[in-house]
Amino acid sequence: MSYISELQDVIRKMHGVESKHIGSVAVTETFKGKTVWDGMVEVFELIGHPTASRLYAWSHDTDGPKKRHVTVLHLSPVDSPQAALKAAIVQEYRLAQES
């Protein structure tokens, strides 16, 4: 299974819709002078989603054997791959603080 097909499978399972890959965007995000992300964010058109026409997705390694898949809907204030990545980083930070 290709990387894009893998992400489309995740989108189907998490959001219940089909998707069409429309591009890849290189994104680098830094925090306090350190790079926290340097990779590709995949952009998908959603087919039949009730509130969003696009979605941003990527995966990254975890401490375990599985990869973590991330999907972020294109809904205000998320309006770009960069904004999607920032929103996901903030969410992961908040979850880490709670545990």
Explained architecture:
By secondary structure, this protein is an alpha+beta fold. It has one domain (3-98). The protein has two helices and four strands. It has helices at 3-15, 81-98, and strands at residues 18-31, 34-47, 54-61, 67-73. It has a four-stranded antiparallel sheet with strand order 1-2-3-4. The longest helix has 18 residues, at 81-98. The protein is globular.
List the SSEs and their pairings.
Elements: H1 3-15, E1 18-31, E2 34-47, E3 54-61, E4 67-73, H2 81-98
Question: Which features characterize this protein?
Answer:
single chain, 99 residues, alpha+beta, four-stranded antiparallel β-sheet, 2 helices, 4 strands, globular
Q: Which strands sit side by side, in order, in the main sheet? A: 1-2-3-4
Q: Please, how many helices?
A: 2
Overall form: globular
Roughly what is the average pLDDT, rounded to an integer?
Answer: 92
How many angstroms separate the termini? 34 Å
Judged by helices, strands and strand pairing, the structural class is alpha+beta
As a percent range, the share of strand residues is 35-45%
Radius of gyration: 14 Å
Uncertain runs are none
- Largest sheet data: 4 strands, antiparallel
Domains counted in the coordinates: how many? 1
Helix-residue proportion: 25-40%
Q: What's the number of extended β-strand segments?
A: 4
| Helix-strand pattern | HEEEEH
Gist of the model:
By secondary structure, the protein is α+β, with helices and mostly antiparallel strands. 31% of the residues lie in helices and 43% in strands.
